[in-house]
TrEMBL record:
It comes from Jiangella alkaliphila. This is Uncharacterized protein. One of its GO terms (molecular function) is catalytic activity.
Length: 186
């Protein structure tokens, strides 16, 4: 195992201090996120960020990005665990622990420093997140997701076969059903 970069050792602590300040201010814990983008992996692997209710958007809400230097939206697949995962259990253990999954649209600001410690301390470019409806179980192989805003595909993601769409427009957010139903309204 490679030695950690001494320049990065303080970054997680700085990140967790900001998280704790949000929790102390009334935000609730939502979960964790993995940084897998081009500027996020540090030392050859993903890094971890946090999610709190402070940055969760409700379906149909608006979020200004005018203060963001380089605003971007990422389509993600989010999982909700129903129990703890044995760290030595492998992939089957993770699958068994997942209680549900959904599509998420994360708003990021890619402006600012390229310094790895600053990226971690600033919570991996995260600014806001919108979750679609939750589906029970673990995502099936080749699950795909895309975000459509006002009829235009904004971003796509493949999880690893069910196709899901999170549509964030005036009409709400939904995954299409097997019958191709209309969207749910907020």
């Amino acid at each position: 195992m490679a030695e950690p970069d001494p320049m990065l050792l303080g970054a997680p602590g700085a990140q967790l201090t900001v998280r704790q300040d949000a929790l102390d201010g009334g935000a609730t814990r939502v979960g964790w996120k993995l940084g897998l983008g081009d500027r996020e992996p540090i030392g050859g692997g993903p890094v971890v960020g946090y999610l709190t209710s402070q940055t969760v958007l409700s379906c149909g809400s608006r979020c200004s990005v005018t203060a963001h230097a380089v605003p971007r939206a990422d389509v993600e697949v989010a999982v909700r665990f129903r129990r703890a995962v044995d760290p030595d259990g492998g992939a089957d253990e993770v699958r068994a622990a997942v209680g549900g999954f959904t599509v998420a649209l994360e708003l990021c600001d890619l402006g600012g420093s390229d310094d790895p410690a600053a990226i971690v301390a600033a919570n991996l470019f995260h600014r806001a997140v919108l979750f679609g409806p939750w589906t029970p179980g673990f995502p099936r192989p080749a699950a795909r997701a895309c975000a459509i805003v006002d009829g235009a595909v904004l971003a796509k993601a493949v999880f690893a076969g069910t196709s899901m769409v999170c549509c964030c427009a005036r009409h709400g957010c939904w995954p299409p059903s097997a019958k191709g139903s209309e969207p749910e309204t907020p």
